[in-house]
Amino acid sequence: MQCSMPKCVRVTCLYKVARSNNNVWC
Q1: What are phi and psi of 15, to 5 degrees?
Q2: Torsion sign over Cα 23, 2, 9, 14
Q3: What per-residue confidence (pLDDT) applies to 21?
Q4: Which residues, including other chains, have CB under 8 Å from residue 20's CB and lie 6 or more apart?
């Protein structure tokens, strides 16, 4: 899954979506 959302914070190797507070692998 790609993190191309406007509200996406990169944490280490994970992408945290501030919208749902979910961790998405890059």
Answers
A1: -115, 115
A2: positive
A3: 60
A4: none
Q: What is the pLDDT of residue 17?
A: 60
Phi-psi region of 24 (alpha: psi -120 to 50; beta: other; left: phi over 0): beta
pLDDT of residue 4: 60
pLDDT tens-digit profile of 1-26? 455 655 655 655 555 665 666 656 54
How many CA within 13 A on the CB side of residue 17? 13
Would the CA dihedral through 18, 19, 22, 24 be positive or negative? Answer: negative
Instruction: Decide: helix, strand or coil at residue 4.
Output: coil
